[in-house]
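Please review this one.

:::
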Amino acid sequence: MHVERPQSAAAQSEQREHFKSRLGFIMVAAGCAIGLGNVWRFPYITGQYGGAAFIILYLLFLLALGLPVLIMEFAVGRASQRSTARAFHVLPSAKSFRWFEPWGYVGSFLLLMFYTTICGWMLAYIPRLGSGMFNGAGADAAAQAFASLTGNPSELIAWMLFSVAIGVIVCGMGIEKGVERVSKVMMSALFVILAILCVRAVTLPGAAAGLEFYLLPDFSHLFAGQTASEQLGTFGNAVYAAMGQAFFTLSVGMGGMEIFGSRIGRERSLTGEALSTVGMDTLVAIMAGLIIFPSCFAYGISPDSGPSLVFQTLPVVFGQMPLGQLWGALFFVFMGFAALSTVIGVFELLVTWSMDRWKWNRRQAVLRNGAALAILSLPCALGFNVLSGVVVPGIGDIQGVEDFIVSNNILPLGGLVFTVFCCTKWGWSWDSFVDEADAGAGVRFPRWMRLWCTYGIPVLGVIIFIMGYAPKFAIWFGIG
């Protein structure tokens, strides 16, 4: 049996293609994290759980839960200079973690199998808004327009394949000339569009009420009209939602951030790089809210309309605005860029993992994974029409099942594995992790967090995992 011999960090770095610049690394890592969780899930969950009151909870858990695990992934990647396909063959005391190697590869496929379809929705709405389809449209017309899109299998498949093709083309160009260069341009354009839309939204007549709801904490929004026991239950749901959002928004636990860590040098500390990534990710989420909430309040539309907020509620809002065609099209360009940045980042995970594991060259890895992804994404695209009858009780349709496996299983359990490996005696060890995290100039990892990282984060990870199944068991076994 072949055993890979550990190499020095310098020797490994010489063999591996790295990002050309620190900015490029941050843009790619942030681009992978910035996605539909920021600009779709975050606003509607914020609306459901009291606006600014929920944001406070979210930020607390982001710093206490998401950030440390992100640093751990970066550290494992940079120390090994390998993806999860080979990291546990290189690092010391890692033999018992080799079962984890396929985790990120399988998780990335599952994520992209439904993400490419939803990305296609975003792209499909750009010409729809730009053409004036929603000018003066009401809620029923917006719902019919969305149903028309999802009910058309040929159009859904075409947009899904377009999303896959973008990932294939960009990753096929390599790290520096493809992934890094395109991510820089896309993320720069994303922030410019965000800034323009924010200015438009906050200057709408009546936008002040939306800003107040979004930025001024008021727990009465969360508990209005509830008894004491109902308030306790609502608060518990809000805490769980904040924990989940803080964890999932960074895409930690699947090994993607570990791969980006494997493509950077040791000039900068990983805590500082992680703070930059988290800062950009959070800024996009906050700015998305600055667009959505003032716009909804300005036109008297509820901001807590759930997942339909983006595709059925906001088109109605833009349809009532002066120059709504322009603002609506720009909004979905922004949404499309956010989704595509994740498609590119996660597809690169598949490519790098394959190159490390099977020694494929980049061209082979891109074409083989691209073909597999196009085929495996078909069930989700067809799950809204031809295969709409395929439903798992308590979970939902094909897209819901794939999302549940990733969000409620792959991510929290993967984050738990990285934490155990980095912080306990059964893996790499706390001292080795912190030494790697602190290598280079910049912010140091706080060593006083040892007990929290060793015990607190794993406990929260287990809670997130169990709470994800609690409502499913209630349905499956008729509890409550």
